């Protein structure tokens, strides 16, 4: 298991650095990163196609709810359109000395597509669980315990259920933030 710190300021893919702001909200911490010049765009597979999730001017807006076992990142293109949502499943989370959120990653991730409705509501239309093989290998090699393996799957299923029912609260926090970043 590794600790992920949500800090993109020194990302090797980005030549021109970028801008990063951190905002503490009552329910957690938001880290908003806009990429500078990207020398190597990030393209990932999703449902039989490829999806560009990082290029010059793209934003990664991360939300770490207080004491949650998951964290949400929205990846937006230079025009502000959501390219993908990405949810890390973890065992524990917190905020480090620099004020940046972290999560003890349990390997599984949930990704999805978001449709913005005419009234401004967001609907998650497709989801996928990633890195099951990494979770299986971590268990096989003894890097995690069976109870952590079970917790990872329980966490992923809870996130999927919340996304499907349109009740995954972190998504609403980021929707409101993107509509008005200072509230």
From TrEMBL:
It comes from Deinococcus detaillensis. Pfam families: DUF402. PANTHER family: DUF402 DOMAIN-CONTAINING PROTEIN. Residues 57-168 form the DUF402 domain. InterPro entries: DUF402 (IPR007295), FomD-like_sf (IPR035930). This is DUF402 domain-containing protein.
């Amino acid at each position: 298991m590794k600790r992920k710190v949500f800090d993109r300021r020194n990302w090797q893919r980005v030549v021109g650095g970028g801008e990063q702001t951190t905002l503490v909200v009552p329910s957690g911490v938001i880290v908003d990163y806009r990429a500078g010049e990207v020398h190597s765009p990030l393209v990932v597979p999703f449902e039989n196609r490829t999806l560009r999730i990082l290029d010059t001017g793209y934003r990664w807006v991360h939300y770490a709810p207080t004491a949650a076992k998951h964290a949400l990142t929205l990846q937006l293109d230079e025009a502000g359109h959501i390219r993908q949502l990405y949810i890390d499943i973890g065992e524990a989370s917190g905020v480090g000395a620099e004020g940046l959120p972290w999560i003890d990653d349990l390997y599984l991730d949930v990704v999805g597509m978001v449709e913005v409705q005419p009234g401004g509501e967001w609907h998650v239309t497709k989801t996928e669980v990633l890195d099951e093989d990494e979770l299986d290998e971590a268990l096989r090699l003894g890097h995690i315990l069976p109870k952590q393996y079970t917790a990872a799957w329980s966490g992923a299923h809870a996130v999927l259920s919340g996304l499907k029912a349109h009740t995954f609260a972190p998504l609403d926090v980021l929707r409101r933030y993107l509509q008005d970043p200072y509230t």
